[in-house]
Amino acid sequence: MITMTFKLPMLFATLALALSAGTALAAPIAPDSTVSITGGILGLPGGKISNATGLDFLNFGVAGTAGGTISLNAPSTGTFGPLFTLAGCPLAASAGGCGTITDLPAGTMPIASNMPISLPITNFYTITQAGRTLSFDLTAITDVSRISAGLTTLSISGSGTFRLAGYDPTPGIFTLTAQGSGETTFSAQAVAGTVPVTVPVPEPASLAILGMGLLGLGIGMARRSPQASAA
């Protein structure tokens, strides 16, 4: 009796501690939270940006380097609003900005592109302010649009995942636009929580449903059999 009195409170305390620890680990990133970035860019191969099949982001304003530097070009919204501000990112991308972005090699974006292009890049871009780092992992480029007349334009869309300490990894959509020829600038935005998440039915649940159906069929047949024999 004494043993049961001791173990039961301990069990409830342990469960409460486990549940509170699980809920304290992360918080959701609010849907439609946005962050907007800008920086220098060179289409690969060189020439009109509309002909680019890859992107060389300028590092401190210099092309031909690994990756590039970025800065914010609009106020962040939602969860990101108070964490990543224009005031906290005062430097232009050419002076170092407040983040980095990974180059897309030539051939990443074929000229004829109607199908999604698988391209997982961890930490495709990062933004750091006051010791916090927001990362966006680019999972795929889903659309490439080109305008070759006048001020040539390249627009790309993609999907990926936001990662921020203290928050759940959250799916998002990435868009980028650049205009001109040679070295130019780009604008990009990523929006959280806009990618639908499909949760497949686990296989054990499917088997359980099938089993219940077969069990019901068996019971029905068993109930009919006495009547059939009496007839």
Automatic annotation (TrEMBL):
<keyword id="KW-0732">Signal</keyword>
<protein>
    <recommendedName>
        <fullName>Ice-binding protein C-terminal domain-containing protein</fullName>
    </recommendedName>
</protein>
<feature type="signal peptide">
    <location>
        <begin position="1"/>
        <end position="26"/>
    </location>
</feature>
<dbReference type="Pfam" id="PF07589">
    <property type="entry name" value="PEP-CTERM"/>
</dbReference>
<feature type="domain" description="Ice-binding protein C-terminal">
    <location>
        <begin position="200"/>
        <end position="224"/>
    </location>
</feature>
<dbReference type="InterPro" id="IPR013424">
    <property type="entry name" value="Ice-binding_C"/>
</dbReference>
